[in-house]
Specification:
single chain, 225 residues, alpha/beta, eleven-stranded mixed beta sheet, 5 helices, 24% helix, elongated, RCK_C_sf, NAD(P)-bd_dom_sf, NAD, Trk system potassium uptake protein TrkA
């Protein structure tokens, strides 16, 4: 997979290193000569250019990229890069870094963004995830379809503990994608049973999050029916 990363600072280089280890073809773009540190990521291609300029993106052959990552420290630049990548070059997947949480509302499909990654939001979500059992935690927002990646740790008192995945009537527009059980990562099937303490990862429409939390968190009082 060919991936172009706009922004060759610490964040961009770190992403490039991870993706290179996984066998992907990486192009790092930055307009600052001081940011071009080929020796730090020697396996990547490097381009000294302004990623907000069409001529630069033509030179980068952005139309050949499967993914573009706008990873600069400037939200305005990241939005422009995302918009150009999607509208001018038809890049299938555009991921953008959000530096200022106040700008997060802009990072949507109108600006060509498929996935917006807000470091402050992600850090706070990870803190919440570490201390919250039974509370739904939003980890990542997908622009298309108004969907989010959310996590919930199944509490001891959940009515669904011991229930097979296939027997649960999940809310509409909700998909259980992963069960993390101790050190194991499970791709759930209908035959798998939910266990107290499971970390459950869902892709869910935002409008369904409250239903999902209610379903998983509360042990329903059968005698009250």
């Amino acid at each position: 997979m060919r991936v172009a990363i706009a922004g060759a600072g610490a964040v961009g280089r770190s992403i490039a290193g991870e993706l290179l280890e996984n066998g992907h073809e990486i192009l790092l773009i930055d307009k600052a000569p001081t940011a071009i540190s080929v020796e730090r990521v020697p396996q990547a291609e490097w381009l000294l250019a302004d990623a907000c300029e069409i001529t630069s993106l033509d030179e980068a052959a952005l139309q050949r990229c499967n993914v573009v990552i706008a990873a600069t420290g400037d939200d305005k630049v990241n939005l422009v890069v995302s918009l150009l990548a999607k509208t001018e070059y038809g890049v299938p997947r555009v991921v953008a870094r959000v530096n200022n949480p106040k700008n997060e509302w802009l990072f949507n499909e109108s600006w060509g963004v498929d996935v917006a990654v807000s470091t402050p939001r992600l850090m706070s979500a990870l803190v919440e995830e570490a201390v919250s059992v039974g509370d739904l935690v939003r980890l990542l927002r997908f622009s298309h379809g108004d969907a989010n990646l959310v996590e919930l740790t199944l509490p001891e008192e959940s009515a669904l503990a011991g229930t097979r995945v296939g027997d649960v009537q999940w809310p509409q527009d909700t998909s259980l994608v992963t069960i993390i059980r101790g050190t194991r990562v499970l791709a759930p099937t209908g035959e798998d049973s939910l266990e107290a303490g499971d970390e459950l990862l869902f892709v869910a429409a935002q409008a369904r999050e409250e239903q999902l939390e209610d379903l998983l968190s509360v042990r329903r009082d059968e005698t009250a029916r």
